[in-house]
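Researcher: Go.
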Amino acid sequence: MNSGSADRAASPAPVVQLFFNPASGSFSARDMVLLARGIEAAGARVIPAISSDTAEPLTIDRDASHICIAGGDGTIRHVATMLARRGCPLPIAIYPAGTVNLLAMDGGYAADPAGLVRRLFGEQAGKLHHPVAIGEELFFACASAGPDSAAIAALSTRLKRWIGRAAYLVAFLGVLWRWPRPRIILTADGRQTACEAFYVAKARYFAGRWSFAPQACPSDGMLHVVALPRAGRRDYARFIWAMLCGQKVPGVHFTCTTLMAQCDDPMPVQADGDMIATLPLTLTVDARAIAFR
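Model: Structure:
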């Protein structure tokens, strides 16, 4: 046996910690079984771990060599944030099992157990993703403060589990009656911008296969910001229509690495589809990059 063969024989089998959220929008127990079997068929050991609001605090098994996250953007954010905080440079793969799956779409992941196994153990280098810090929290896809964040703040999680993404529409219908028009001041690179709503992209997609900043890139270390000076019902409708049509959305466009947002009222801020904070706050590109396969 040559030395290369001996090295491969001596190499320990990979250990995959499989995080999954049974409450995710498109979670399927059958898919999880198929995914675990596929990982095991590739010669790896699987360590299952539940990531949900009711589960025990997340921990990384000391034997884990790879991480697989089966869930939506919120589940990915929780697990990846834990990895970043603990400085665990383990390769991560995503199995989309959420309601919208923005990060999975941006990374080209599909609900294909066999394809994910090939990708997880492939030799292709991982793509670095620079998350954004809001206080102690991190987000990876997008954040916003405006009518959509007000709707997410009013979202019923029970209704979301029942009817999926249609629950967002129900919540938004409630916002139509009490439309928010906050006065927000954004500060970046010494420049101030007054607005009534703003959107921050760290990845390409927002609320589905649409984008207000198609040039946003997870690895570029920049925040891509769109501020709406006016965000009345008609202004917001024009913004949404342009995004749905693939056109440049109206508003003030700029990039930065740190963004301060101030408001007289505690306006809710959503990140990756979840309520994460209220204004005022500061968003900063985090130096801790996460490697997604």
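Model: The first strand starts at residue 15 and ends at 20.
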